[in-house]
Design brief:
The chain is of the alpha+beta class. It has three helices and nine strands, in the order βββββββααββα. It has helices at 118-123, 127-146, 179-182, and strands at 4-11, 25-28, 37-44, 50-56, 60-67, 70-78, 102-108, 149-151, 173-178. The strands form two sheets. The chain has a six-stranded mixed beta sheet with strand order 4-5-6-7-9-8. β2 and β3 form a beta hairpin. The longest helix is centred in the last third of the chain and has 20 residues, at 127-146. It is globular and about 50 Å long. The two termini are 15 Å apart.
Length: 202
């Protein structure tokens, strides 16, 4: 019953450095022999009449799906922290495209803000880190609002659980929708029926 899967930090096959294939799904990712994990979007083969890849980068995959004469754009992203300490997406301009179609943006933001993750920030005993988190989150919020995207997450409804004693639950997996998409969403929630990751499926 799952039509689309948006995955981040997906392990790749050791023999060809490509994501694992599934007979019922088409996978979209960037061809890059240097990466050991990928951002991958899987779409069920018998669901859409047409699937068009728009953008394939290591940390951002955009596809357009045509279903019953309607186009749907899906953007799957992973805002990973790089070796220099910076985030891989940073300015987020390409994350929120102007679109006449229903568009959903979903992924691992690795960002904290009091707008969606105040419980996590309340546990921080470091005002410098909190300020840095908030500054980065405000950049994403600004770009989203410019293009009329709204956040779908409920405040403090965590999406990453604490696997160790020194971690705190957090809201870092964020979903955004433009005005056309918001009209079609009935529910947006996590499930705890998956125990192989510290991130909860949305």
């Amino acid at each position: 019953n799952i039509h689309v899967l948006l995955l981040q930090e997906t392990p790749v096959r050791k023999d060809n450095n490509k994501p694992y294939a599934h007979p019922s799904y088409i996978g979209f990712s960037k061809e890059d022999p240097e990466t050991t994990t990928k951002t991958v979007t899987y779409v069920r083969k018998d669901w859409a009449s047409q699937i068009e890849p728009i953008k394939k980068e290591n940390d951002c995959i955009e596809i357009q799906i045509h279903i019953r004469r309607q186009a749907l754009s899906l953007i799957n992203y992973h805002n990973r922290q790089m070796k220099n300490g910076k985030m891989s997406l940073q300015k987020y301009r390409n994350l929120f495209p102007k679109s006449k179609h229903s568009t959903l943006v979903l992924g691992d933001s690795n960002l904290h803000s009091r707008l969606w993750d105040s419980d996590f920030l309340n546990e921080l005993d470091d005002l410098v880190r909190e300020t840095d988190y908030e500054k980065a989150a405000q950049v994403m919020l600004k770009q989203a609002s410019k293009r009329d995207y709204e956040l779908l997450n409920r405040p403090n409804k965590y999406t990453r659980i604490a696997k160790t004693g020194y971690q705190n639950p957090a809201v870092i997996d964020l979903g955004w929708a433009n005005s056309r998409m918001r009209q079609q969403i009935r529910k947006f929630h996590t499930t705890d029926k998956f125990e192989k990751s510290d991130h909860l499926p949305i």
